[in-house]
Amino acid sequence: MKVLIIEDEAINIEIITDHILRYNDKIEIVASLQSKEEVEKWYQTNEQVDLVFSDIELLDGNVFSLLKTNIIKSPIIFTTAYNTFYQDAFDVSGIAYLLKPISYSKFYKAMEKFESLQNKEVNWKKISETIHGLNNNYKERIIVKTKTEIKIVSTKNTGAILSNSGKCIAIDESGKENEFRYKLSDLIKELNPKEFFQINRGEIVNINFIEKIEPYFGDRLAISIKNYKQHLITSASATSEFRKWIE
Asked: Which residue pairs from 142-148 have beta carbons closer than 8 angstroms and sit at least 24 positions apart in sequence?
């Protein structure tokens, strides 16, 4: 059996690896990947494995935006530190869901479940709809991971989100910058369009934090966000839609 681990924390990779080898030392762990970007690159040159262990919140964002592309066709045992509404979704769909720290007894039961359901086809569309409440729910929090801590930033308290060199920066209500990994193109799809608008290639604003809008060179607009000194500028192509959006 070939197994792939998708996890961005070294200690959890060690725990899962130990559990796998304890369960069956003949299982081959083909790779440990830490981000959605690494997963995409890995699958370009590698075949599907028999089983995947995957965290939900990775360095560059939520894994479900990746799974909806159907890049992974193998059964998945999800591992996460967050006891959210995902639990019910995966119980209903017959997918194992393990909360960290993962005990061996829970791991063992998950493996037994996997072996009994190996031939079951995974319906990602159904799972995605269950998770997102048939697309009526939008992203409520941003997970900011550093080497020393995990911080949760509420999207309601986020005035703007900026993209820079492959990373995102969430500007909170106090004007503080919180760096996290995510694709802006994925993120905008998960935010409430009544509150968030992508004003250019690398910036998203929250309408509830806009203090002032002023004319700018080239038929663009300069936007002032509460407690943030830097002006955000709409692109020429987005200005017209932005004007309609704020009305």
From this structure: 142/170, 142/178, 142/180, 142/182, 143/57, 143/180, 144/170, 144/178, 144/179, 144/180, 145/8, 145/57, 145/59, 145/180
DSSP assignment string, 73-130: -S-EEEEES--STHHHHHHHHT--EEESSPPHHHHHHHHHHHHHTTTPPP-HHHHHHH
What type of residue is 139?
K
- Global confidence as pTM: 0.56
Question: Tell me: the pLDDT tens digits for 195-220?
Answer: 999 999 999 999 999 999 999 998 89
Residues 6+ apart with CB under 8 A from 125: 68
Q: How far is CA 149 from the centre of its chain?
A: 17
Do the Cβ atoms of 50 and 20 come closer than 8 Å? no
Question: Which is it for strands 2-6 and 28-33: parallel, antiparallel or unpaired?
Answer: parallel
Cβ contacts of 26 within 8 Å, gap of 6 or more: 1
Amino acid, single-letter form, for residue 153: V
Q: If you search the block for the tokens 């038929």, which residue do you land on?
A: 219
Give me 161's structure tokens: 């989100």
Per-residue pLDDT reduced to its tens digit, 60-119: 877 877 877 778 888 889 888 766 646 554 554 447 888 888 999 999 999 988 887 765
Helix count and strand count (H, E) for the chain: 8, 17
